[in-house]
Design brief:
This protein is of the alpha/beta class. It has eight helices and 13 strands. A six-stranded parallel beta sheet has the order 2-1-3-4-5-6, with helices on one face. A five-stranded parallel beta sheet has the order 10-9-11-12-13, sandwiched between helices. Strands 7-8 form a two-stranded parallel sheet.
């Protein structure tokens, strides 16, 4: 089978990526070729080159819930594609849930995909005793570059108790250099870290919670409530935007109770091992 990948994010490697690894573990013969020679084209939302190939079977991928350019919600079923892989839990025809955080895990012992530059070893998801040592000398960190109103309010609320150290590409923020591993190393100095999604839509969960957890912090998560469908709810704090004071009181309680703090820290992020069997079945069905 000849496949091609187009319109993906910056530094996406057509010959070294998670989708290709899944295909190689599902089919005996998979070749990456130019789009015009492909039997199947995988495309995402970072371009319009896919529109040139109307007669080729196409599969749409989005890990994002909102389009980076138009700022509109992405509905996989509205794409003119044969099938889709997305964040959605929906029952759209030929759609499979394949969240963006999958791309940050080293399922196939690859070490890197270029972007992400560093992959989280799979065992870190199930075992809190990973290779990182958290000192927890500082209170709380937040790493983000999209200055949303909700994020500003959450940081402001928590900072009423103790100041939150903010990093990212925002004016007056501390700068953060390096790849995903450097981000995790930075968080090793903190008890808590804010993991705040760009938007709240069912199924939209990114790598933010994972990086916060494997750094040994207690993640303070802001995102869709469907997070507990996937991750161990006892391994982090869910910040309720509409009950900010209650959420802050929970943080204060944990910060001042060493036993409770360690109980949460010692909870694995996932209780059951992730299986790609449903993904393999999906590809066999649509390809």
């Amino acid at each position: 089978m000849n496949v091609s990948f187009i319109d993906f994010w910056s530094n996406f490697d057509n010959k070294n990526n998670l989708l290709l690894d899944v295909l190689l573990n599902c089919f005996h013969n998979v070749n990456v070729v130019e789009p015009k020679k492909a039997d199947v084209i995988f495309y995402s939302l970072f371009g319009k080159e896919h529109l040139l190939y109307q007669d080729t079977k196409k599969i749409f991928y989005t890990g994002e819930a909102v389009h980076w350019d138009t700022k509109k919600i992405i509905y996989p079923e509205k794409e003119k594609s044969f099938a889709s892989l997305s964040f959605s839990y929906g029952t759209e025809k030929n759609n499979l849930r394949f969240p963006i955080w999958y791309f940050y895990i080293d399922w196939f012992n690859k070490k890197t995909y270029g972007n992400p530059e560093w992959l989280v070893p799979e065992r870190y998801l199930y075992n809190v005793n990973n290779d990182f040592v958290n000192t927890g000398t500082n209170f709380c960190a937040a790493i983000y570059s999209n200055q949303l109103k909700s994020r500003k309010k959450i940081v402001k609320t928590i900072s009423k108790y103790k100041a939150v150290d903010c990093y990212g590409r925002v004016e007056n923020f501390k700068k953060l250099e390096g790849n995903e591993k450097e981000k995790v190393k930075l968080l090793l100095k903190y008890k808590f870290s804010l993991a705040m999604e760009n938007t709240l839509l069912n199924g939209y969960h990114t790598e933010k919670l994972i990086h916060a957890k494997i750094a040994g912090t207690i993640p303070i998560y802001y995102g869709s409530n469907t997070v507990i469908n996937e991750f161990n709810k006892n391994a982090f704090i869910v910040f309720d935007y509409y009950k900010k004071r209650k959420s802050l009181n929970k943080i204060i309680e944990i910060d001042n109770d060493k036993i409770l703090l360690n109980e949460i820290k010692n909870q694995p992020l996932l209780l059951e091992k992730i299986s790609f069997d449903n993904v393999y079945k999906f590809f066999v069905k649509v390809l």
